[in-house]
Every structure is written in C-alpha cells, then in structure tokens.
Amino acid sequence: MRSPLAFLLIVAVASAVPVPQEEAKYSRYIQFPDGDGILQNVDLEAKPNMQLLNEVERNPANNIYLLYTRRNPTSPQTLVMNNANSITSSNFNRNVPTVVVAHGWLSNQKTKLNGVLRDVYLKKSNVNVIILDWRRLAISDYVTAVRGVPAVGRGLGQFLDFVNRITGAPFNSMHLIGFSLGAHLVANAGRELRGRVARVTGLDPAGPLWNRNSGRIAPTDGVYVEAIHTDGGYIIGGLGIGAAVANADFFPNGGVSQPGCLLNVCNHNRAWEYFSATVSYNHLVGNQCDNTNQISSNNCRGRQFHMGNDDLRKFGTGLYRVNTGRSYPY
Asked: Any residues with CB less than 8 A from the CB of 56 and at least 6 apart, and which?
C-alpha cells in the first residue's frame, strides 16, 4: 500500500514525461480522499455491492435536493422528486439561473465545497442553488460508487426535467457543476436531458476507473462542457482524469501539481477552489495549446479563454493552460 507521500512522488516523477494522457495507468491498490480530504485505501478490483446498485437503479429519488436562494441563503428548502408542492411552495424562481452542485466520494451536503460554491454564487447574483446530496451511494466503497454514478446522474436529470415541467424553468438557464465523482454524475444528468442544459462543469473529474468508462463526462453532455484538471497524471494516474474529456479542457499549471500544494489531495481540491474564485473575479485566463507537450512545458501560445466563471452563454473548444498563484484568489 502506498503512503500519501509515495503516491505524490510517483505522480511528480511521472509528470515529467509528456506522453498521451489517455495512457495513464493505475495500480490495483490506491488511496483516494473522502469529503474531508482524508485518504482512504481503495481496491480497484473489489467486487461492487450489487444490492445497493440495484436499489440505486430502481429509486433515483434517494437523492436529496437542497435549495438555497437569496431569500434563504443558509437554511435549505428540500425539493422532492414528483412532489410538485415541494417546488411551487419553495423559493425556487423559474426566471433566474439554476446552479446544481454535486459533491464527490464519501461526502454529503455538509462538504466544504458545497457551502463555498453556494456562497460565491448567491453573493454574485440572484440564482437558485441546488445542492445535490447523493450520500446513499457516495458513502459506499469506491468501486460501487463508480458503478452507480451514471444511475444517480440520470436521477438528477429526471429531477431537473420534473422541475422544468412544473415551473417552466428552461434547461438553457441551468449550470451543472460536479467535483471528482460528482463531475461524471452531473455529466450523466446532462446526458439524460439530451445535452440541453446550458453548461456542465467537471471539477477535476475523478480518474480511477474512468479512463475508458463510457459513463464519464463527455463534450455532448451539455451545450457547453468544461473540465478543469488539477491532479491528472501522464503515466501514473492522479486523483483526477488527465485526459481531455470536454469541449474545453483547462490544465492549471500543467494539470498535475498546483502551487502551494504538497499532496495530491490539495491538487485535487484546487479545481473547485479555482472555480469558486472565477465566479467572483473571472480572472483566470488560459492560452490554447496544440498538444499535451505544450501543456506540460508551459509553451501554449494560442488564443486566450477564461476558465470557469458563471457565464451561461459561454462556449469554446480546445486545450488550455492557465497559470495561477499559490493562494486565493490565485
């Protein structure tokens, strides 16, 4: 079993050799962080919990949808699938954008990123923020969680379709944001809605078991799909997927290690930390790259494009390197 430091050193050495990112490999035993950033041992060849997976497939209503608005910025209202009154009697406003945030593995509604993203959005503008708590699956072992993510994502898509039918809130005013496993989850929600949501943003989409997984985030999951890669790997995979998966893929500081970070967990979390800063300041600008060699050597000279932000009409394609600072707002 590798220690966190050993894992860090292997990834750091691997990052010095710029080979195609799809070739990143994982050993059977890895360590992956929970919602508190504590590394947990994972066996990538473990047998999934089929009983739980069957339940998740049958009942997407296991998801918890918590609504925050400027009228209730800290006390959520629970929206319930197929319960129209839970939505019509809430503060949900069909005339403003809707932002959905999905956490990662071994996490829940109280995970730090949820509160941070909620607060920056509500401070910036009048929006509906829906925090998706999918703990029923997220607290299972990693292999089971990976297998169940597409079903949970489809459930989120069905919920948003219900919201659309009840309130008329258009899909082109919806932005789905997910971190780690949550990135693949919201992508599947967008897929369920046939790519009609305005934006899907994957914040360091999880890497282990996703390299050739048909359920992973893809460019067709929304009108515009963006991924921010902060802990990928070129030979040995990082916590995040190192491959381009979206319309526009951003690789801050090369996409492997981040300024001010010593461990992979810190690199991984930088994705949502960078994103939250861009909602407030829209200040992180990348240069387009022709290939992964340019990304790793910091030699991208193409057109400029803003990373992150809350623009629902944003669109772009390609690979981009963004150079950041060590501390907020980076």
From this structure: 62, 136, 137, 148, 151, 152
